[in-house]
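Quick illustration, no need to memorize.
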Amino acid sequence: MLYDKYKYQELKVSESEEMMAEFLQVRTNGQITLPASTRRTAKVEVGDLLEAIVEADGSIRLVPKTAVDRVLAEKYQLDDVAWAMKQKGKK
């Protein structure tokens, strides 16, 4: 059986719900497909960005991310710094 040669982990989502890990196959160009049930559970939709983090043990963790416009991020960061400096001056 295919599953015998792979380790799998039973995940406990809540006391009343258990999930089995799903197996993904790496395709020719290194692509994988997340099964629909995984996407629904993780609330991942078409066009979402995922960060792939390789852990020390070689496992891969996918983390949903939000894209931020760099110009806007810098503007708000400068606004935050100005606000913090103003607050520091009030003390």
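The chain is about 30% helix and 25% strand.
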